[in-house]
Design a protein that fits this description.
By secondary structure, this protein is mostly helical. Among the domains are: 60-121; 127-226, no CATH class; 258-307, no CATH class. The protein has helices at 19-43, 60-77, 81-91, 94-102, 110-121, 127-135, 145-156, 177-188, 192-203, 210-242, 258-264, 291-307, and strands at 162-164, 173-175. The radius of gyration is 40 Å and the shape is flat. The termini are far apart. The relative contact order is 0.05.
Length: 308
């Protein structure tokens, strides 16, 4: 029998004795060749892109983030023409869509529609306000220095931190956003001790810019987390030992090592009054009878045998 697929030349082997075995041979071929190739084809497909959403009351940095997501969505979904305009309308939530509809937004140009959505959704502030907010930024207690730097960069992007070259005939625009972010992150570090060490390294020339500053603070934060974990483990071990009692003196646990016991255990070096064995007190002795009691018991048994 030949495979039913038109693109396959497979034929079952000769001399198969029964029809059932012939069908089984063909089924094994289909499962191992055709279904495996189908699963491989399905597994190679990329996930359907998720449409971004936009609402009212956005900041300028949030709008920039939406535009970036929209451009990637257009590229992945291969949108163009009227289809792109329709998808852009779908990105708006109900409130923003009503505002756009009430503002008589009717255009087939996605660029014009995107600008109109920005005018309705974004609360535009003067760059001076962003500059003031930028220089007042501080790192949160539970925030890493890299996350703080990202927040600083996001705010600095709205501050228009650039200016044209003052040299005659030069039209180049010079940006000073990196230097500003470096100073803001340095001054906004929450850990004062780490900030002092960073300033010292900056004076020595080790820290020169924002990347080198983040390398230093990240290393400091990693070391701090490691030390905190080790201290927590030691404290937990102490709590565990405090909850136990020493099996030799009955007091607080000293540890399992003989060196610790010899230095801290009061029973170490002494003799039990109950069993006469060393290094423990009679109050924690596990012997049922003392040697003296055993001696009297043995003597009584001997006397009884003699009388008998």
């Amino acid at each position: 029998m030949q495979c039913s697929s038109t693109s396959c030349d497979f034929v079952t082997p000769e001399n198969i004795p029964t029809y059932e075995l012939l069908i089984r041979s063909l089924e094994i071929h289909v499962q191992t060749v055709h279904q495996a190739s189908q699963n491989l084809t399905h597994g190679s497909k990329t996930e359907k892109p998720k449409r971004p959403s936009v609402t009212t009351g956005l900041s300028e940095s949030e709008w920039t983030f939406f535009v970036n997501k929209w451009e990637r969505y257009v590229r992945q979904a291969k949108l163009e023409g009227q289809h792109m305009v329709d998808e852009l309308w779908t990105c708006m939530d109900s409130e923003l869509e009503k505002l756009a509809f009430g503002d008589n937004v009717a255009t087939n140009d996605p660029t014009v529609l995107l600008q109109k959505i920005k005018s309705l959704a974004v609360t535009t502030l003067h760059p001076s306000i962003h500059v003031v907010n930028l220089h007042q930024m501080k790192q949160n207690q539970d925030e890493s220095s890299k996350a703080f730097s990202t927040r600083v960069r996001s705010t600095a992007a709205n501050c228009n931190l650039q200016k044209p070259c003052t040299k005659d005939g030069c039209s180049e625009v010079v940006s000073y956003i990196e230097e500003t972010c470096y100073h803001v992150v340095m001054s906004g570090l929450a850990d004062q001790d780490m900030k002092d060490r960073a300033l010292t390294q900056a004076m020595l020339g080790v820290i020169k810019d924002l990347p080198s500053l983040l390398n230093f603070t990240t290393a400091e934060e990693s070391a701090k987390v490691t030390v905190k974990t080790e201290v927590g483990a030691v404290n937990q071990n102490r709590k565990t030992l405090q909850g136990r009692k020493c099996g030799y003196c009955g007091g607080r646990q000293h540890g399992e090592y003989n060196k610790l016991r010899s230095a801290q255990c009061k029973a170490y070096g002494g003799k039990c009054n109950k069993c006469q064995k060393p290094n423990h007190f009679a109050s924690v002795c596990n012997s049922s009878k003392s040697p003296i009691a055993k001696k009297h018991s043995n003597s009584a048994a001997i006397q009884e045998d003699v009388l008998t």
